[in-house]
Every structure is written in structure tokens, then in C-alpha cells.
Amino acid sequence: MTLKELLEQYAAGERDFGGIMLSEANLSRINLSGANLSQAILSIANLSGANLSGTNLSYAKMNVTRLSGSNLVRANLQGAILNVANMIRANLSGANLQDAALIRAEMIRANLSEAKLNGANLNAADLRESNLRQVDLTGANLSEADLRGSSLIAAILLNANLIGTDLSKADLTGADLSNAELRHARLHRANLSGASLRGANLRWADLSGANLRWADLSEAKLSGANLIGADLSCANLLNTSFVHADLTQTNLIRADWEGADLSGAILTGAKLYGVARFNLTTEGMSCDWLDLSPNGDHSQIARFDSENFEKFFNQTPPVVQLVVDMPISSDAHRVLADIYHQLSQQYPEMNQPPSIDVGYRRTILTFRVDSDELLLPTAYVAVLPFQDAGATQKTLVNLVRSLQSSSPDLSGVKAANQAAKLSVATIQRLRKVSGLSCPQVEGYSELEFFQAPTQTTVANSSDLGLTIYSNPMFGKRFFNVAELGIPLSALSSQRAQVVLPSSREILEFIQGFYSFD
Q: Could you report the per-residue pLDDT of 12-34, keeping only the tens digit for each?
């Protein structure tokens, strides 16, 4: 069929041209919208500016074909062969390119939004500054492809092959790259915020300056990766491998990397505020200094030698534990959640609710804090809903006063200075919360749970514990008072007494804080 015959039949309403052979034909700006060109031979043809929207080009042969500026919206190109095709600025939004061959295709600034490219072969394709929003590239081969500056927002790249692919400055916000193969990929200054890279292979990838905020990199392999200056704040890094990775000046504020392998990694200058430092593999890791300031502004720098480096990365999480001598009821649970929510608005450092362990006789509330210095202030706030709040808080106030007066008694000037420095920081934080009062919540005063005896303990990052307060009636509610042989008034007076830990216990506990001179 000649080109003239094709145009005449299309104008007459014919749409079925399956298997047509028009190699090297000039079809520039032709309108074949909605036509069936399945299995057509169009190699080296000129279809630039053509209207092929909704056209069936499945399994067509279009090697080296010119499709620049063409309209292929919702076209069916499943299984089509488009190797080395020129598709610059082509509109392929919503098109079906499943299993298509696009090796070395030129697709600069092409629109592929919401297109289906699962299983497609885009090896060495040029997709610079292209629009690939919400595209499906599941299992696609994008090895050695050029995607610099492209938009892949919410794209699906499950199990995709991106070995050696250049994604520099690409926007992959919210993209799913789970189990993708990204060895030696270039992701310099790419935006991967909120992206899923769970189980992805990023060995030797360049992620320098990349935005990985809130990204999921759990179980990912980043051995040998370049993460210099990358933003991994709030990222999920559970069981991630950073073996010999370069994390110099990386932002890891509030990242969760429990179980991560940092063997041989470089961590100098990383921002590490609010990051748990336990259950990590750190053999052979190097780190001269860290930024521990809340805002990553270098206001709190930690410098290391071999001794304090080992101590810093082998800590336990500091916790406040409040034990209530009664199982919590559903009503009390609801009220407690409301109270702690309101308190967190006044005291943002208690931004996480406690874990609650309910037994037959007791309820254990455990608060995990970001640093040792937050232990005593958090204990002060945590006990506010309970009748024992006054006695517990009085103990805390007297404890820090004891700390101030006892620091000089330590043997050695360095030890005394260290305790004094830490006590000042703790006292300042305690003063910040001393004016807080328990919010009034409906039904609160009627619940027996908040009247029950309590016990408050704290454990620092060196796993040293300290009992702040234990109600004299704690654990004794099943006793008959008459059988104790002492009058009830005696127990009541005990309840009001404040019994401090010894000065030595307090100082040893404070010295167990991790500090930097």
C-alpha cells in the first residue's frame, strides 16, 4: 500500500492497516489517530509531529523512526521495537509500552506520565528532563540510561534494572524502587524524599547531596556508596548495609538505623541528633567528629578518640519507666492518652507516647528519650497525671540540688567539672518544665488508676539505673493494714516523705551520661 492509498482509505473511514509496510516513508504531521497499525513496518520512517493518539502500534517495527513532537497519547505500543528512535518531546502520556524495545532511544523532554513501561528495555536511552510521573517501570531495563533532571514522582520501579543509570538531579519523590538494582547508579542531588528503596541494591552508587528525607532504605545494600552531604533525616535504615560507605557530613537527624552495618564506613561530620546508638555493627568505622545539635548547626560537636568513640556507639537507649500499681482500664487509657497529648504540646521533647505493658497487677509506662539530659525532665512531666506527682517532683528538685552541692566532692578535677557541667544542663531542662501542670480532662479525677501508688525509675545510656521515687504503699495494696502491726497514720506519713538516692548514686548516674569535653 502506498502512502497516498493509506491517506485516502483513512479519510474514507478505514482504520485497519495492520502489518502495513512503510519503511523510510515521510509521514510527517500525518493524522492516523485511532488507526490499527499493529505489526506495521515503519523503520526509518518520518512520523515527526504526527497525530497517533489512541493508535494501535503493538509489535510494530519502528527502529530509527522519527517521532519527535508526535502525539502518542494513550497509544498502544506494547512489544513495539523502537530502538534508536527519535522521540524527543513526544507525548506518550498514558501510552502502553509494555515489553517495548527502546534501546538507545532519544526521548529528551518526552511526556511519559502514567505510561505503562513494565518490562520495557530502555538500555542506554536518553530520557533527560522527561516527564515520567506515576509511570509504571516494574521490571524495566534502564541500565546506562540518562535520566538527568527527569521527573519520576510517584513512579513505580519495582525490581527495575538501573545499573549505571544517571539520575542526577532527578525528582523521585514518593517513587517505589523496592528491590531495584542500582549498582553504580548516579543519584547526585536527586530528590528521593519519601521514596521506597527497601531491599534495593545501591552498591557503589553516587548519592552525594541526595534528598532521602523520610525514605525507606530498610534492608538496602549501600556498600561503598557515596553519601557525602546527603539528607537521610527521618529515614528508615533498619538493617541497612553501609559497609565502607562514605557518610561524611550526611544528615541523619532522627533516622532509625537499628541493626545497620557500618563496618568500615566513614561518618566524620555527620549530623546525628535523635539517633539511637545501639545494635549497630561498627567494626573498622572511622569518625573524627559528629554534629549532635538538634538543628544540625554545629552548636554541639562531639570529637572522638578511640576510647570515647567505642563508648559512643555502644550505648543503650535512655528511658524513663513509670510503674503504676494497678492494671490500666480502657477509660483510664483514653484519658491518659489525652493528657499526654496535651502535655507534649507544652513539652515537645516528650513527642513520642510511652509504650504500655499491662500485667495482672501493674501497668508499666516506658518513655524513650533522645538524650540522657532529658531523663529527669521527662520523669517530671510523665508523672503529672498521677497522685504521686507532688512527691516525685519534690524528689527530683531535691535531687538536682544535691547534685549541685555534691559535684566538688568527687575525686579529681576533671570528674568534678564533668558532673557540674552535666548537672547544669539537667537543671536548666528541669526548670523549663517545673511550671507545667496536669491538663484537666473530663472524668480524670474519678478514675482510681491515677490514685494508685507509683514507682519512677530512670536508666541512662550507660545502662545505669536510678530510682527517683517509690510510694511506700507500692506493692502492698493486698495487705491488711492491721496485720502489718503499724497504724495507718504511719503509712500515710511515710507517703509524704521524700527519700533521696545517695549522693554517690546520683553522681555515678550523671557521670554515666555521654558527654564531650
A: 999 999 999 999 999 999 999 99
